[in-house]
Structure formats: C-alpha cells, structure tokens
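SAMPLE LOG
Freezer: B-3
Tube label: C17
Construct: single chain, 374 aa
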Amino acid sequence: MRGADVGFATALASLPKVGPARLARLLDLGEPGEVFERVCTGALGDEPGLVEALGASRADLLASWRHHARAMDPEGLGRLHHDLGIRLLCAADAAYPDAFRTDPEPPRLLWVAGDIGAVRSPAVAIVGARRCTRYGHDVARRFGRELASAGVTVVSGLALGIDAAAHAGVLDVEEAGAPPVGVVGTGLDVVYPRRNAGLWHSVAQCGVLLSEAPPGASAEPWRFPARNRLIAALADIVVVVESTERGGSLYTVDEAMARDVEVRAVPGPVNAPSSAGTNRLLADGAAPALGTGELLESLGVVADVPGGAGRAEQPVYRDPDEVEVLDILTTGSVTFDELAERSGLGLERLGLVTARLQAEGVVQRSGGWYERRG
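STRUCTURE (predicted):
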C-alpha cells in the first residue's frame, strides 16, 4: 500500500465496531484518504453497500465514527508502522499472500510483522483447546516439530494450549525447518495472551505474524472467529489436536470445510471432555491424525522423518503402562478386551494409553484389533 494511504486505511480500520465486512464497504467507496475525509465531515450514509453493513444502528455508528475520526491523526498512524516495524498490505501489493487472493472472504488489509515470505505451501494449521492436556500438548509440539523439519509451514493462532505448543515445536527445529506463521486476532503491538509474549516475539523474528486488526486493536471476542477463517485459508490441511464439544477451534473447522480444506483430528479418550470435539469430528467422517507420516503423504511431501517410512518419530516411553501395552502388541494383533485382560489396566486407563500410542503413530487399530507398527 502506498505510504500516504497507510495512515488513512489504518484510521478507517480503527473506527469503532469496524470488522472485515464494514471495512470492506468503506474501502469500496474510494481512496482511503477521501473516505476518511467523508467520515470526518459526515458525508457518508446513503451508499447501498454501507447501509446494509451498518444495519439499524447506522445513524449512531456514523455519529460515533465522525466523533472518533476527528480525534485521529492518520499521519501519525502511518509513522507508527515504521516505529513498530510492521507493514500494511492490500491485494494490490505483490507481497500479499496468494492464498488470500482466491479466498471468498479475503482480508482487505493485512498487517505483517516479520518475513511475509514465510507464508507458503504446503501448510498445515494446528489448532485446538486452550486448556489442553499434557497428551494434547505433547502431540501438538511433536507435530509442529516434525512438520517444520519436513519443510511444511505450520500455521496457528498463538493462543494458549495447543496453538502455542505447535509453534513451540516449530521453534525447536531452529533454522533447519520451515518458519512459523502466526495469525493473531489483535493488533500486532497488542500481545495476547500476555503469557505468550516470548513465543509471539520469537515467531515474528523467525517467521511472520499476520493480523487484519490494526495496531492498537484489543482482544475483542468477535475478532477471533474472524481470525480463524484466515488460518483455514492459509492451510492445505487443518489438524485439530484437542477440542471440547463446542471448542473455539471448531470455528476453524467450519471455515476449512467451507473452503474444501482437508480436516483431520487427533483421537482421544472417549470420556475426556478435552477430546469430545475431536472424537465427534472423527465420528462425523474426519480422517484421524495419527502421526506426521499420514499428513506428509496427503500433502505429497517426501521427507526423511525420524522413525522410518515417513512415520512420526518414536519417542522413548517412560510410562510403564505404555511399555506394557507395547510389549503385549509385539506378540501380534490383540483386541481391546484382550489388552485389558493381559495388561490388568482399567478400561478408562487403557483407552487413554491406546489413544496416545495411536497418536504417536506406533500403534494402529484395524477393525477391532490393535497392532504395533514398525
């Protein structure tokens, strides 16, 4: 975007209750500077597209916009980008991501911190619960690490829990892997959540942060479902590691399905609330995410993933229950009931152990039988 327009476009995006749809209608009216002047003078309101976008509260909103616009300093907002080290892109810019150019709901303005070249295919979005279990955290981190090692871009929302674990895994790879891509719901100068400040800055330094929220935008609840469509748009596959029955990551699933983006889910214990959403996705027909090998195969990526045959790396198991189950499975295929009888584990505990081993990619279930892989 031209330097003179950056401040005016940012000012329009910073008006009260301006989301993606309303911002798009404003930008459709003309050059950002001209539209901003009309907001200041009250010369807006009768344009059909804007009337529809503002709805019944049109008069109150226009009055509020006029009041706030008159107190703004667009030139100062333009300088702020330089001070913060961020860029503002629109579709006319060569650096604007190609994935958004063909999207049905592209961001009209995109704020960038870091290297926009980090946005590339193939890409996997890893999303899930903020209040994740240790199991979910470990799976997300391993997926992030192994995908980045294979040259696959990992996209996430930098929320607590699964999002943060996935990007922590990417950063484990350091310079040898694909850089991380974070899509956030606040202004790039408003770190949210604060607990992720270190991760936030590391992603910006090693990869890129993207937002359609202007500098200074706070963590308003409506911004995050809107943000999720951008995560889905950048991904070739969306992986949900853990989710409750109505978890926020399911918004990303909806956006992915609307774009014909493949959705996969990590299975979890049937009695665990943290896996209720992912297990429901599996029941509804989503493919399971049992390891990075399957993800790489779906992407058409040939990579030497530790553990052999493109499968996920086999970790050192310190849990004696996992060791016991793996030892039993070395004798051949075994049913769940036989596993329970031979291991002496309760059904709940055995369900958790087998789910973990399946997610690690070292155990698979075929029909009613469990068998060890590799």
